[in-house]
Write a structure and sequence with these properties.
mainly alpha, about 80% helix, globular
């Protein structure tokens, strides 16, 4: 019965966000109260548990979520996302545009929200599709699957951090990042294959829109940061989180060693 209540709660979140266009935070809050009350929990206990759970989660990962959001805005406003895209394109060349878009999405969405990343790279996607003479739908699938893969699995985006906090792994975010990076790769590969095999057969209205040339897109963005500065907002937090995880693991090891000595 409890599993049924949880299932209804998930459906409620989907309906409130997708159909009634309610903000996800409010939808989750309403669904949480529904699940608590429907499971037989007293109303005051539900309120207490929601406050305790949310407060505890924000205590452990609140600052990380805020700083991750700031990093995303920096990459968006400074043009660092485009610089990273340029680097990937130089390495892969122009013969594999869908693979380039998948990898670009994989990298950019580590600190940037996937929907923001899609908007940021939309003009680049169209210009590359025009230059490579491939369907825009194919490029869109490759980009979106790359973006979603790391957005849902790799910190410092809020979702994976919150999930790590819920399972008590907030002190080991370095491990979460490492595992998430590897687990996201199969999803990117599947998205790339789908983009090449199926997306190239889909004709959408955007295919007929006049897209800017790639050089014009880059030029219109103005002066962009260097490659080092572009990748630094992604690499530095991962390194710092990794150092924190190593420090936490060392403390656990020392505690175990002391307990074994006794």
């Amino acid at each position: 019965m409890l599993f049924l209540v949880i299932l209804v709660g998930v459906i409620l979140v989907v309906l409130l966000t997708a159909v009634f266009k309610l903000h996800p935070f409010l939808a989750l809050l309403i669904s949480t109260f529904f699940v608590g009350i429907a499971s037989g929990m007293p109303l005051l206990t539900v309120v207490e548990n929601v406050n305790t759970g949310f407060g505890g989660l924000m205590t452990s990962i609140g600052i990380v979520i805020v700083t991750g959001t700031i990093i995303g805005v920096i990459l968006e406003k400074s043009g660092a996302a485009y610089r990273m895209a340029e680097v990937v394109l130089r390495i892969l060349g122009e013969k594999r545009p869908q693979l380039a878009m998948s990898i670009i999405g994989y990298i950019v969405s580590i600190p940037v929200f996937c929907d923001s990343g899609f908007i940021i790279l939309s003009s680049l996607k169209k210009s590359l599709a025009k230059r490579a003479k491939v369907k825009v739908a194919s490029m869109a699938v490759a980009l979106s699957t790359g973006l979603y893969a790391t957005h849902t699995l790799v910190p410092p985006t809020p979702g994976p951090i919150a999930a790590a906090g819920n399972i008590g792994a907030s002190d080991y975010l370095g491990t979460v990042i490492l595992v998430g990076l590897f687990v996201a790769i199969p999803a990117v590969i599947v998205g790339y294959i789908w983009a090449v095999k199926v997306g190239t057969k889909i004709d959408v209205e955007a295919d007929h829109e006049e897209a800017l040339d790639y050089e014009e897109v880059i030029k219109s963005f103005g002066k962009m940061p260097s490659t080092f500065k572009a990748f630094l907002p992604i690499i530095l937090p991962i390194v710092l989180i990794g150092i924190g995880s190593v420090a936490a693991l060392r403390e656990v090891t020392q505690a175990l060693h002391i307990s074994c000595s006794f």
